Amino acid sequence: MSSRHRNRPRDAKVHASIFAALGDETRLAMLAKLANGEPQSISRLTEGIDLTRQAVTKHLRVLEDAGMVRSTRVGRESHFSLRPKPLDDVRDYLDTVSRQWDDALARLKAFAED
């Protein structure tokens, strides 16, 4: 993300929704399953997860609302696939914040050593 966009309120709202969606271990597990790039049905995504289909669907909707997952109809099923761009945008944001902290700590160190 370029520095000219990092302080926009809309960006903060989008980033907050992504972080909120990532703050759940079930949703993280689903994203990990989707990370292979292959669209998957709800039944495949629920393998190894002790949740109802309805609960999994709610988690997928949160990920979809945050822009990280896309659903498409295939016959009678919905298939879900990962959309990496929002994750890339958040990574760029975190890299920017990290650089800001590194710069601030470097200034503090230089001040303390003078």
Topology (elements, then pairings):
Layout: H1 9-22, H2 25-34, E1 40-41, H3 42-45, H4 53-65, E2 69-74, E3 77-82, H5 85-113
Antiparallel strand pairs: 1-3, 2-3
Helix pairs in contact: 1-4
In brief:
The chain is built from five helices and three strands. The chain has 114 residues and is of the alpha+beta class.
Account of the 3D structure:
This protein is α+β, with helices and mostly antiparallel strands. It has one domain (9-113): Arc Repressor Mutant, subunit A, CATH 1.10.10.10. Helices cover 61% and strands 12% of the residues. It contains five helices and three strands, in the order ααβααββα. It has helices spanning 9-22, 25-34, 42-45, 53-65, 85-113; strands spanning 40-41, 69-74, 77-82. Strands 1-3-2 form a three-stranded antiparallel β-sheet. Strand 2 (69-74) and strand 3 (77-82) form a beta hairpin. Helix 1 (9-22) packs antiparallel against helix 4 (53-65). The longest helix is centred in the C-terminal third of the chain and has 29 residues, at 85-113. It is elongated. Residues 1-6 have low confidence and may be disordered.
